[in-house]
Write a structure and sequence with these properties.
Number of strands: 11
CATH superfamily: Ribonucleoside hydrolase-like
CATH architecture: Alpha-Beta Complex
Radius of gyration: 20 Å
Helix content: 25-40%
Keywords: Glycosidase, Hydrolase, Signal
Largest sheet: 9 strands, mixed
GO molecular function, one term: hydrolase activity
Pfam families: IU_nuc_hydro
Strand order of the largest sheet: 3-2-1-4-5-6-11-9-10
CATH class: Alpha Beta
Distance between the termini: 51 Å
Strand content: 5-15%
InterPro entries: Inosine/uridine_hydrolase_dom, IUNH, Ribo_hydro-like
Protein name: Nucleoside hydrolase
C-alpha cells in the first residue's frame, strides 16, 4: 500500500475531520470493510416493470449535489430539471470531476445563464472521507494495473477561492455570491424543513451525502428519494477494470450512502450510460432553431469540437439521471439489487456489487438499477427541454 494511502487509512478519523472542515460537522468513523461474499454468477435478470408513465413532476423538490463543471453532464442535468419545472432548492458542490471550489463558480455562472441566479450554491467537501489520493495515483495505477488516465480534480492544484480560478467560467464570474454556510448542513436543514419531499441528486462522489447521514442520521427516513449517477454492475469500470469514476473518487462515502436505508434509491450506472452516445447529429438537433443562451453556450463550447472532428462521440451520464427522474417511463429495463461498495484497497477498490435480494451481505440496501432506456424518446426530452428558452 502506498505510504500516502496507508497514512490516510490509519488516520481515517482525522482525514474525515479534514474533509468536513468546510462542513462544520463531526468526523466519520472508518467505513467497515466489505463481506467476503460475492454476487451470484447465476443471478437472474430480475427485471422489474418500469414505473407507469406520468407527467414531469413540476415543482418537485430537489437538492442537486454534484462535482459541477462547465456545460458538462451535471450542468446539463441541472438545465433539464429546471427547464422541466423542478424546484431546485439548492446546488451543493463536491470534489470529483472538479474541485468543490471550482464547482461553486461554475454552478453560479450556469444558474445565471439560465436565469436562475436566486438558487443558492453551497460549497461542500474538498476531499474524500479518507483523504486525497492525489499523490499516490501513479503508484495505484502501477500496483493494480489500473488505467487512471483521467483523475478529475486531482489533475491540477486546488484553487484558493471560487473567484480565483486559473480560467474563469464561461462568460465570466457570476454576479451572485456563494451562499454562506456549508453543503452538509444545507442538506440536513432542507430535508428537515420538507420531510418526505426532497430528492437528493448525488451525481458526483457521495462525500456530502455520507457526511450528512453520519452527522444527522435522523434525516434518513425523511428523504423521499436518492438518485445516483454511479457504479458499474455488469460492465467494466471506467477507472480501471472495476470502478466507475464517482465511486472510485470516494469509495468509502459511496459505501456509506448505498448502505444507508433510504426509503428509495435509484441508480443510473455505466451499464446504461455506456449505451447512450452524444455526437454531431444530437448536437445539431439541440442547437437548431431560434437561439437561446443555453444553445449559444453549446455552440461556443461544443461547436468547435465538432467542427474539428465531426465524428467525435461521447457518452452521456448525469443527463440520463435527470431524464429518468422527469420521465420514469423512459426506463425500459431495470433490476432491484442489494448494493454494497468494495472498499478494500486493491484492484477492486470502488467496485459496486449488486446482490440478489435475500442473498446479500449485512448492510447492503436495496436499490433500483437502471439497465436500459428508450434512447430515441430520451433525446426527444433532451433536445426539447434544452432547446426551449430558459425557465425563469
Amino acid at each position: 500500500m502506498p505510504l500516502g494511502r496507508a497514512s490516510a487509512v490509519l488516520g481515517a478519523a482525522l482525514a474525515a475531520a479534514v474533509a468536513l472542515a468546510a462542513c462544520a460537522g463531526p468526523a466519520l468513523p472508518p467505513a467497515a470493510q466489505p463481506s467476503a461474499a460475492q454476487p451470484s454468477a447465476a443471478q437472474p435478470p430480475g427485471t422489474r416493470a418500469p414505473a407507469a408513465p406520468g407527467p414531469a413532476p413540476t415543482g418537485a423538490k430537489v437538492i442537486f449535489d454534484t462535482d459541477f463543471g462547465e456545460l458538462n453532464d451535471d450542468s446539463q442535468a441541472l438545465f433539464l430539471l429546471q427547464q422541466a419545472g423542478v424546484n431546485v432548492l439548492g446546488v451543493t458542490t463536491v470534489s470529483g470531476n472538479t474541485w468543490s471550489v471550482e464547482g461553486a463558480a461554475y454552478a453560479l455562472r450556469q444558474l445565471e445563464l439560465q436565469g436562475q441566479p436566486g438558487v443558492p450554491v453551497y460549497q461542500g467537501s474538498a476531499d474524500p472521507l479518507f483523504g486525497s489520493r492525489q499523490a499516490t495515483l501513479a503508484a495505484e495505477a502501477q500496483r493494480f494495473g489500473a488505467d487512471i488516465s483521467y483523475a478529475g480534480a486531482w489533475e491540477h492544484p486546488q484553487p484558493a477561492d471560487y473567484r480565483q480560478l486559473p480560467r474563469p467560467p464561461y462568460g465570466g464570474y457570476a454576479k451572485a455570491a456563494r451562499a454562506d454556510g456549508n453543503a452538509v448542513d444545507f442538506i440536513v436543514d432542507q430535508v428537515k424543513r420538507y420531510p418526505h419531499e426532497v430528492t437528493l441528486f448525488a451525481l458526483g462522489p457521495a462525500t456530502n451525502v455520507a457526511l450528512a447521514v453520519k452527522k444527522n442520521p435522523e434525516i434518513v427516513p425523511l428523504v423521499k428519494q436518492v438518485v445516483y449517477m454511479a457504479g458499474a454492475f455488469d460492465v467494466p469500470g471506467n477507472q480501471g477494470p472495476a470502478a466507475e469514476f464517482n465511486v472510485w473518487f470516494d469509495p468509502e462515502a459511496a459505501r456509506i450512502a448505498f448502505g444507508t436505508p433510504f426509503p428509495d434509491q435509484l441508480v443510473v450506472p455505466l451499464d446504461v450510460t455506456d449505451t447512450v452516445w452524444y455526437g454531431k447529429p444530437e448536437y445539431d438537433r439541440l442547437v437548431a432553431g431560434e437561439n437561446t443562451p443555453i444553445k449559444q453556450e453549446f455552440k461556443d463550447l461544443h461547436g468547435p469540437k465538432f467542427d474539428q472532428d465531426p465524428g467525435r462521440r461521447t457518452h452521456l451520464w448525469d443527463q440520463i439521471a435527470a431524464a429518468v427522474f422527469l420521465r420514469p417511463d423512459l426506463i425500459t429495463q431495470s433490476v432491484v439489487r442489494q448494493v454494497q461498495v468494495y472498499t478494500q484497497y486493491g484492484v477492486n477498490y470502488g467496485r459496486t456489487m449488486g446482490f440478489e435480494p435475500g442473498r446479500a451481505p449485512a448492510g447492503a440496501q436495496p436499490a433500483r438499477i437502471v439497465q436500459r432506456i428508450d434512447i430515441p424518446r430520451f433525446y426527444d426530452l433532451y433536445a426539447g427541454e434544452l432547446g426551449k428558452p430558459p425557465a425563469r
